[in-house]
Amino acid sequence: MSNLDNIINEILEDAKKESEQILNNANQEKEKIIETKIDQANQEKDTILNKAESEAKGVYDRHLSQVVLKSRDNALFAKQEVIDSVLQKIKDKLKNMSLEDYKKYLTNSLSKMNLNSDDLLVLQSDKYDSLKNENFNVKISDETVDSGFCIKRGNVLINNNFSSLVDSMKDELEVEIAKTLFKK
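Predicted structure:
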């Protein structure tokens, strides 16, 4: 039986070696599969993170752009309010000029106009009583205007109202005001 025991022992040893080899191969294969899956998971994680980072950057950039535009719009709105305020102050200052300055302005303006004998001068309401008897080489109307003056020529009205004059020059005045107030 010793021969039989030797054969059995040899078979058992071979089986044990083969089983160890199979287990080693299986473990190596398992490690390769795990390593491959970990690599794939890491690549997928990196792809997801890159995509999320890219999307987050896009959202951030869009939001920042909106904030910059809103800020610029607010600054432009504030500047326009200041310009409008200055234009209104110009109108108010012209309307409230002294009687002497108004008379000089009126005399100078009328001298540059080609007036007819039928023309009527419409004076500023708060200056009317002081100037209604003045000689401006044109007949003075009983009507008045809020600011400046007008010339009535039949059905035609030549409007020299200060507010209208400032409004007609608004574009040029806005540029000059902006240059003066907001120079960089």
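Summary: The CA atoms of residues 121 and 140 lie 5 Å apart.
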